[in-house]
Structure formats: structure tokens, C-alpha cells
Amino acid sequence: MNVIAVSGLTRRFGAKTALSSVTMTVPRGGVYGLVGANGAGKTTLIKHILGLLRAESGSVRVFDRDPVADPTAVLSRIGYLSEENDLPGWMRVDELMRYSRAFYPGWDDAYAEELRQTFALDPAAKVKALSKGQKARAGLLVALAYRPELLVLDEPSSGLDPIVRRDIVGAIIRTIADEGRTVLFSSHLLEEVEQVADHVTMIREGRIVLDAPLQEIKESHRVDGRLPSLDEIFVAHAGSA
Amino acid sequence: MQSAAAAFAWEFRRRHRWGMLAILAYILALAVMRLTVEIGNDKAFVIAMILPMSAAFLYFLAIFSFGLAGDLAARQSMFPSRMFTLPVTSTALAGWPMLYGSIAMMVLWLATRLLGVWPAGARVPLFWPFLLGPCVMAWTQALTWMSYPMPGLRVIVTVLWLTTIDAIIMAALELRASEGVMLALLAPHVPLAFLVARFAVSRARRGEVPDWRRAGKRTHVATRGRDPFPSPARAQEWFEWRQHGRSLPWIVAILLPFELALLFLFRQTPVIVFETLCGVLLTPPFMAIFVAATVSSGVTPFITKRPLTTGSLVAAKLKVAMRSTLLAWLLVLIAVPIAVRWSGTTPIVNDWLRELVKAIGMPRAVAVAALGLALLFASTWKQLVQSLFIGMTGREWLIKTAAIGALTCLGVIVPVAYWALGQRVIVAKLWVALPWILATLVVLKLVAATWVAIRLRDRGLVSDRTLLAGAVCWDIVVFALYGLLVWITPAVLFRRHALALLAILAVPLARVAAAPLALAWNRHR
Lengths: 241, 525
Fold this sequence. Notes:
Oligomer: heterodimer
Largest sheet of chain A: 6 strands, mixed
Order of helices and strands of chain B: HHHHHHHHHHHHHHHHHHHHHH
């Protein structure tokens, strides 16, 4: 069964076409890397998956439900972290945990506390007083503590130091260690995607140009018998724009 | 752009061009009216001027102090931190916005002075009010750009300081001070405020924010030890309460002592005692108008991603608005009897109550008082929630259009109504047509409510049961209000069907019900 099924999704913002007839499926289990240049349409696609954008044409199904018609059922099974950390600044870390726990029946107090200690987050600290890296960790904590079936990460590492990036990669590995869980990971830090993704979807100007298992993509782009890096494949496709 | 001064000016012009254009258009329209129409000494024209000019005054204060973009209650300076890295001195950072703000205030006064219709024989001063606007502007800027050691202190300090300046000016006017004395009183303020503003900006630029909270900081009680929320809806109510719910009670609590102090100062003057108590009773609904803007604009991306139905998100806002209203009124209902007793104005208040009982009898007097309080209470809640259907759309263009439209309507309707009420023939015609006017408004309201209900049902935003329960509750409140109105209103004054129409119009329906539609439009774009 597919966790995500997008079919013929098109979205325009005024004269600009952000997504054009996008069709993709994400089966249960594994890490799906969504790559593309800035403005390629990665965030727009993720917003459709979260139900924050309504499909103009085509359809989006998450856990076989429409995320716009049934946001509660869909969002309660998704853990989400984005580059634009929008956690409320006035909350303390412990208040954020208490508040978030109410929405997710699967919230695991012991796991949340373990994550808080691993990330060295002071429970009395206000979110607005946290550094960018600590905010990302707080966001990661509330995205992971209920062991979501689908973890969606939208450019989570942008502008963060290597230690926080390591935490994020660790979170992905931790999530997929739980059998049957799925990660959709959007990034333009391709070495990170290459490190954890099983399957890569590349978007360019709102269209999917590559959608296959990572190893298969590499094999199909073999140069002089050498397997190229995802970086090289990306540049090759971006260059042919 | 050739200089920093031009860049600052461009930013104000570019960001607030529509508001400034609206004010300019209004001033031009006023000038055309003044030149082409024989106005005489018309109070309606004065009202038509005062309302928009006062709104423009507040608007200028807000934009030139960067008050629209910052958190008024925060300890940090409200001066935009992005400007701290500009390669200009703190003098320039504080000075240019202050200069532009002062010029805007001067232009506003000149327009008011030259285009206004003043009572015959009245000597309206030109110069000292010309200085008063920049003085208020400069102090507002200086005090909003200052960092404070406690959250909320900015509001208290600014209100107290501006009230003090106002009191000094009023006292000087009461003592019939000459224009020279008034100028001498006001002249030092702008340079003084500039020095304070420059100090505030340079301190904020260095990141210095004093903190007194450490001294008296309570031991942090870990939330882990507290009970979890029993449901997502309760968690959302807690969120709304912490974010917006406390604002109205806080504002009422800050204003009440100043208002009630007048009872102690003017205990011998029944008229002022009456006006003070009326002012106190109108404080919660009036302040709710301003708090409403924050309540309806608080739909962040974080909230839209909560796994909660749109109906539940709106319900949390409505419930918290009710709790906020309750607390604000509790403060008023506790403070007023205490202040009346301590100020020795109890005999005055008792006399009014005795006269009321004598005129309409004890049961009706109790009913009138209860109805009055209930209406004020309901009005406070209504003010807090009635703009949700606009604010929750998250569309800035719609919110700005609605605000400008409301102000324009107010600027036109109030003077027109004032003028119409002065014309006997028109009043008589309006009285005859009143049932038809009310009936038309009721039809419009019910059509809008039906459309909203159908849309809510079609989109699955509210369950059939909730819709039915809402409709039944609304009917009960309307019937109760109608019954009360029939009982306390003399039959000769209003026919029963007119009272029924009034009751239907008084109880909120369509706009409150439209809030989930607005949020859904915002949540799933």
C-alpha cells in the first residue's frame, strides 16, 4: 500500500506553474529523497501532501485519504519539520512538549524525554531564546516523539551546523529502524540525501525528471565505468535545463 | 537612492503607500468640499473631519514608530533589528523616522486647522497644536524603541507618560495659558525625546536588554510534572489563552485604576461620576475592538498543521474569547463597587438607582440593569470574534480592504446619521420606514447565515449535529432577548414585530459562523 499517491498534480501561482502534472507514489518503508534546485517545486509538493495547498487539478492521497478533506486523520500520522521553523516563540520547551503531546495518541513520554536530553534542550528555555540549531532540534523532537508513520522533512538542514545536521540524519535512521515507517526528505544538500535515501525523486521546474531507486539512478548515469555522485547527476540534469 | 535619508523615506512611502494615499485623498476631498460647498457651522461636517483625522493620527503613530510590525508587550526594542546593520549612525536611525513622523503630524494638523469648520468667534490656535503632534509622535517613538526590563512595561510607561503630557496640556488650557506659554511647554519635548530615542536605539543596537525577572524569578515548575491535556481541543484552548486570551483582561486591569481615579478626584460632581462609570462600563467592549485584531490574525503555519479539525480550531478561539470576556468583566464588576464605596460616591449612585426604580418599578429596573450588563458583555465577546471571518482568511489584501472600508463607512455613516437626526422630516420618515429597514437587514442576515450553513455542511467543516445545536442555541437566545425586550419596552414605543427584528439582528450569527470557512480557505490554499 502506498503512503503517498500523487497523480497528475498541477499547481499554478499566477502565471508561474509551480507543479506540472506531477505523478509519484511513495510506498511504505524506506527513505525517499526529494531533490531539486531552489524554486523547483519541492516545498509546493510537500505542502500538497500536508494538505496546506489544495490540488487545482490531479489528486493527492496520503494514507489513502485526502489531506484537505480529512486533515486530522492525515496530520496525526505525519511528523513534519521544515527549514522555516515556525514553532511559537513564547512557549517554553516543556510547554511545547506538553502541548504537542495532546494531539498525538502515540506520543511516547519516555522517548520524548530521551530526545530532549540527547538534544540538550533546557525545558525552561523559551523557544524564541533558542539558537537556530536548537530550534531545529526542538522541532525534530516534536516531530519524532510520537513515532509518526510518515516523517516529512522539508530542507531541514539548511543553514544548520554539522552537529545538528548529524542529529537530523540520525533521526531519519532512527525512524526507518522502526519497521514500516517512511521518510520523505527534501534537500539540496545532496551528500545527505545520498547518505540516507533509498529512492530519489528529482524535480525541475515543477516536473519530475528522475524517479527511481538511488542505486538504479547511479547505474543509469555510469560514466567510464564509474558510479557518479548524486551531485554530478544533479548538475548534469540541471545543466540540461 | 542617493542617501540613507532618502532610503528611509522611500521605505515608509513604499510600505504604507495605500494608507497614505487614502489620507491624502481624504484631505483633498475635504479641500474640494471646503472650496465648493457652503458648509457654515455644521456639526456633521466637524464629525466627518474628526473621525478620519483621529484615525490618521493613530495610523501615523503606529507606522512611524514601527508599531505595526513589533510585539508591544515584549521587553526588546520595537525598532526593526534588520536596520541595526545599516552603515549609518544611531542618530540617523532614530532621527530620520522621527523627522518624517513629525512632518506627517504637522501636515495633519495644518490640514485640520485650515480645512476644518470652527465655531464662530472661536480662536483656534495654530502654533502650539502644530508642535503637539510631533511631541506625541517623538515620545511614542522613543518609548516604543526602548528596551524594558519587564514584559508589558512598555505599554504602562508609554500610556503613563503620554497621559502625563496630556494632563499638563489640559491643565495649562484650563488656566488659559497664552500661546507663548504653551509653546514653551511643548518646545523642549521633541529634542528631549530624540535624545531618549537615540539612546534607546544605540542600546538596542548593542543588544542590551535589561532583565529584572532574574531577581524575582520563580523556580521553574517542570511541565512534565503537570497533567497532560485531556484532549487536543483543551490543548488548543490553552494555546489560544496563552497567546491572546490574557490581552483584554490585562488591558482592562491597566486602564481601570486610571479611570476609577476620576471618582476620587470628582466625587462632588455627579455628572463626572456618571460619565466615569459609563466610561468604565464601555472599556471592555471598546478595548475588545483593538484586541480583536490580534485574536483573528493569530493563525500561523504552526497552527494550520495541527491535526485538529478547522471547526475545533475556531471553537477554541470562540471559547477563549468568552473566557477573556468573563475575566475582563469580573475585574470591572469587582473594581467598580469597591471604587464607588471608597470614593464616597455611593449616595450619588444610590440616588440614580432609586430614581430608576421609582420610574419603572423594581422588577423592571433589575431587568434593565441585567439586560444592560448582558448586552455589554455580549458586545465585548462579539467585538472579539466578529472579525474572525476576515482575519482568519490570512489574506492581507482582504484584511486591509476590510479595515479601510470600515473606517470609510464610519467616516461617512456617522456624520450622515448625525445630520439626518437633526432633520425632523427625515427622522419622521425613517421612523415610519424602520420596520422595513429592520426587515431588510434581517433578510440579508438570514440569507448570509443560510449560505454559510450550506457551505459549512457541504465542505464537512461542521457536523450536522453542531449546526443544529448552534441553530437551536441561537433561537433560544433570540427568543429570550425578545421576551425581555417586550417586557421592558413600552408598547407605544415599539411594535412587537419590530422588537423581534431587533432581537434577531442583535444576536451574532452569520459572521461568527463564517469563521470556519475563512480558516479552511487559509488552511488549504
